[in-house]
Design goal:
CATH superfamily of the largest domain: GntR ligand-binding domain-like
Keywords: DNA-binding, Transcription, Transcription regulation
CATH architecture of the largest domain: Up-down Bundle
Helix content: 55-70%
InterPro entries: GntR_C, TF_FadR/GntR_C, Tscrpt_reg_HTH_GntR, WH-like_DNA-bd_sf, WH_DNA-bd_sf
Distance between the termini: 43 Å
CATH class of the largest domain: Mainly Alpha
Number of helices: 11
CATH topology of the largest domain: Four Helix Bundle (Hemerythrin (Met), subunit A)
Organism: Shewanella gaetbuli
GO molecular function, one term: DNA-binding transcription factor activity
Protein name: FadR family transcriptional regulator
Amino acid sequence: MFIQVEDSTRRIHVQVARQIARKILSGEIPEQQKLPSEMELCDMFGVSRTALRESTKLLSAKGLIESRPKVGTRVLSRSNWHFLDPQLLDWIQDLENTKSFLSKFLGLRKAIEPEACALAATYATIEQRKQLSVLFQNMLSAAENFDYEKWTVNDHQFHQIIYLSTDNQFYIPFGNILTTIFKLFIDESAEGGRFCINEHKGIYDSIMSGDAEKARSFCQQLLKDENQRLSKIEE
């Protein structure tokens, strides 16, 4: 069920927690199912009881499991999982059903990002507008040369700066905590050559000119399903 952990720069209890978490997130270990006993898990992973208990504390803090004395450890329902935890988002990467997570993440972006663009058009500082300008020029260059790696780096930073430019502390975590999922999302949606330059240019021009309504509208266009398909995108 699990493989033994090896010495690495990552702490042993984190390696154990990651393995268990990924099996839970993928559905291989379903909700409400009990995990093997503590002794069995220690044998499976080849770790001490202390390391295992540290890993279960970590998983419990993320809402994935619940441990009770004399009862055991069971997987909690998805409603308890802390999906905005950056470590949990990192563990989601490379799962076979990543696209289903990204599709739901697109729903979240549709709900909050257009308003973030509108706020950025109103409140972005001179320095933040300068940063956006540099990033957008880099995006143009990347698109012209079909440089996906350069595009991903700059597109991620472009959206991150927008969230940081809202002057609203409740938007800022989406530019910081979701760094991992943004990069994964952009990697997937840009694959195949469709960079949505016109939509990004519209957002950029609107923020630079301080037009909140247009910034909101262009962002809504960018996030339409046909522009954000999580598969190969044809020109």
